[in-house]
Amino acid sequence: MAILTPDKITTLGGVTVKEYLLTKHNPNRIDMPTAQLTGKVLGVTIHNTDRIKTAAGTTPAEQYTRATVNGNMKTVRVHYYVDSTCAWQNLPLSLSGWHAADGSGNGNRRTIAIECIMNGSGDAADKKAEDNTARLAAALLKQYGLGTDRLYTHTHWLNVRDGKSGSTDQLNTMHNSYKMCPAYILPHWAAFKAKVQAYLNGTSAAKPFSGTSSQLYRVRKSANDMKSQLGAYASLENAKKACKAGYSVFDSRGKAVYTNSRSGKFVKGQAVHIGSNVPLFANETTSTPAVRLTAGTYYIYDGVPCKLGRYRVTTTAAFCGKKPAGKYVTGYVSWDNFK
Prior knowledge:
Blueprint: E1 8-12, E2 15-19, E3 43-50, H1 60-69, E4 80-82, E5 87-89, H2 106-110, E6 111-118, H3 124-143, E7 151-153, H4 154-161, H5 168-173, H6 189-201, E8 217-220, E9 231-233, H7 236-242, E10 248-250, E11 256-259, E12 271-274, E13 278-280, E14 291-293, E15 296-300, E16 310-314, H8 325-328, E17 331-334
Parallel strand pairs: 2-5, 3-6, 3-7, 4-6
Antiparallel strand pairs: 1-2, 4-5, 8-9, 8-10, 10-11, 12-15, 13-14, 15-16, 16-17
């Protein structure tokens, strides 16, 4: 598909915005959100998506927009993709998006979504993309008469979805076993929020995050598996806390400095307490919960760790290890939900 031509080019908060609305351009008839956002805007939600190589004459934000039009972004629908050069607007601000993984919750239905395109290296392109995102977020908050207390992370809505409680920023940064996003901004969320506040105030005090890749510890399955990254942290201790079973913490040289070995602690027949609203998955890789469990005691079916740090559980100790598994296994639960 040819590089897209925007219908309109404007400037918002000092960021060049290229408008290409999916409501006007949908040749492949991809599914689209229908819930209206008009009069309901609660705030702005920040995401990170990985930087990709692009052909000459285009930018990552245009390519993500093109991928959405082609159906390659599956069901993700956001208002803006932002890179180091510009922003591409995909949805009108009168329409809700699909981005927060909270169904018809406030994340999808009541916030404007910004995907900040970075690769976590802390290079000049990362810093400029983050700065453009801060400028755009500030301009949108100002447009709706909102403050930085209405600035949210994707993880915030996952924590709300999972029944967790706390202040806005606690929920913004609290660990979530499903996803930590924006992965590259979360490690310095307070600094990013201060930057947005400075732009909201109309001051020149906001500066791009000055951290370098040598300061970040990345939580991944392997050193080169960028897609599996759960987060990047300036603090090694914070990286360890976010490290799930089957993952390791890698320093800037790609050396594993910590590996989560907790996956081996759960054995066949072991009783584990699971809190309310914990996601139960139908298999070891799906990202969509089949149901949400009620609080109670469950049992480790066979003690074999599965992908994404999950174990098969069952409701009765006598069912552990019995065949066929499909008859006795209740489902898959991430070990970090076990108490």
